[in-house]
Amino acid sequence: MKTNTLTQGALCLSLYGVLLLFNQQTGLLIESMMNWVFILPILIYSAKAGPYPGGITAFSMAILSFLFGTFTTWFYSWSAILIGFVYGAGLYKKIRYSMNFVISFGITFISYVLMIYLWAGIFGMDLSVDFAWISEIVPFLDFQAFCFLFAFFISFVQTLCIHMLAILLCARLKIPMRELGSLKTLHGSKSVGIISLVIVVFFFFGQNVVEYSIWSSVIQILFFIDLGVLDFLGTLYLMEYEITHRIPKFTILAVLGAFIPILNFFWMLLGLCDCLLELRKDKI
Fold first, then answer.
1. What separation in angstroms does the CA of 108 have from each of 102, 112, 163?
2. What is the pLDDT of residues 58-111, one digit of tens each?
3. Which pTM does this prediction carry?
4. Checking CA distances to 99, which of 21, 108, 206, 227 falls within 20 to 30 Å?
5. Which string of DSSP letters, residue by residue, matches the chain?
6. pLDDT digits over 102-131, tens only?
7. Among 236, 237, 227, 212, which residue's Cα sits nearest to residue 268?
8. Cα of 127 vs its chain's centroid, Å
9. Whole-angstrom Cα distance, residue 189 to residue 277?
10. What is the DSSP string of 254-279?
11. How many CB atoms lie under 10 A from the CB of residue 117?
């Protein structure tokens, strides 16, 4: 390795050590509220230097976490180091962003599943209190389905933030990356729309006739994930409409509306129409 690469790796390791020290001195503030911060140093370094120097630095960071952290710090930091290294190496190799996203999401999702189902007491994740509040709004929701959906959606949102922040930082630091695609490449298809309709029909008419509760939980999980996908597709359609008709202020409404209850049902319906009628396919 070149001297410049070694120096940058040492700087990355030093920055990570500062984060660990700050986390310890502030009562585990970073890992309890902003654990994704641990990802950034190794992600940027791996994207710039490549897998081999990034792997050595990631291993050194893992040892540093073991020396200056508790069990929760080990888990948060090691999973963050793994995500950052894999994502950064993917950027260096210029693999598809979708593949990078899926791999990072998978690692994040597994880490949250372990925290919820194995070490909930250690990490202070008592979802029964949140479920009691949610069940008043959605009384048919099963607790196991709620836990799975919590891990799924929080993993998705965190991975999306990492994905967007990584692209922004690499662009500002002039790190070579794969060319970004267009929103027009992301669109629904008729098969997605048909599958969505089948899931919705099965949810409303088949949930009460299943014999085992586990299948009821599976149906609920598929239903809410399906709603999330339709909401996402509806938001993409509105954003492309804003770009085509040059209405900049409409973008804020398109994004915020996807998170507002009741209003986002119109976004989901628009996403379903986009799939079944292929509204955007003709424009590509």
1. 10, 6, 12
2. 999 999 988 877 788 888 889 999 999 999 999 999 898 889 999 999 999 998
3. 0.82
4. 227
5. --HHHHHHHHHHHHHHHHHHHHHHHTTSHHHHH-GGGGHHHHHHHHHHH-HHHHHHHHHHHHHHHHHS--HHHHHHHHHHHHHHHHHHHHHHHT--HHHHHHHHHHHHHHHHHHHHHTSHHHHT--HHHHHHHHHHHSTT--HHHHHHHHHHHHHHHHHHHHHHHHHHHHHHTT---PPP--GGG----HHHHHHHHHHHHHHHHHTTT-SSHHHHHHHHHHHHHHHHHHHHHHHHHHHHHHHHHT-TTHHHHHHHHTTSTTHHHHHHHHHHHHHHHTTTGGG-
6. 999 999 999 888 888 887 767 667 777 778
7. 227
8. 20
9. 8
10. HHHHTTSTTHHHHHHHHHHHHHHHTT
11. 13
Q: Of 74, 105, 84, which is closest to residue 42 (Cα–Cα)?
A: 84
Q: Do residues 152 and 225 touch, judged by C-beta distance below 8 A?
A: yes
Residue type, 47: A
DSSP state of 179: P
Q: Which residues have CB under 8 Å from 49's CB, separation 6+?
A: 5, 8, 9, 57, 92
